[in-house]
Amino acid sequence: MNAHILIGAASSGSGKTTLTLGLLRLLSKRGYAVQPFKCGPDYIDTQHHALAAGCPSVNLDTWMASEEHVRELYSRYGAKADVCLTEGVMGLFDGYDGMKGSSAAIAPCSKFPWYWFSMPAPWLTR
After folding, report:
1. How far is CA 9 from the centre of its chain?
2. CA max distance for the chain
């Protein structure tokens, strides 16, 4: 059985990418098969994920794809991974239309248990 982790935060600029990259690198260096994912249509972070994990990162984007397709992608790419690590988009509940496309809305598409990590908003850490 593999672990499923979603990194979410209160807003953009909260350190999600930094934490995700660190975890991807740590887990892959320790010998775990890690499959990175990114909520939303972000193609820059996925390139960084691939470098840290040593395998391609996959976008989970319900604006450009159906929920069924997102579930299929998650299932296919995550099947052989020890750890599926997904970086959320913007704030946990921020989407392209209200909550549509948000990390919170995409999470149930996987039909797996999720662990939610929330980091403080940037203004709380300054």
Report:
1. 11
2. 41
Write the secondary structure of the chain as one string of H (helix), E (strand) and C (coil).
CCEEEEEEECCCCCCHHHHHHHHHHHHHHCCCCEEEEEECCCCCHHHHHHHHHCCCCEEECCCCCCHHHHHHHHHHHHCCCCEEEEECCCCCCCCCECCECCHHHHHHHHCCCCEEEEECCHHHCC
pLDDT in tens, 76-116: 999 999 999 989 877 666 666 766 767 777 776 665 555 55
Closest CA to 53 of 14, 87, 100, 88: 87
Q: Which of 94, 85, 77 is nearest to 23 (CA)?
A: 85
Q: Does residue 124 fall inside a structural domain?
A: no
Q: How many domains does the chain have?
A: 1
Owning domain of residue 69: 3-113
CATH of the domain at 34: 3.40.50.300
Is residue 87 a part of any domain in this protein?
yes
Instruction: Kindly report the pTM of this predicted structure.
Output: 0.82
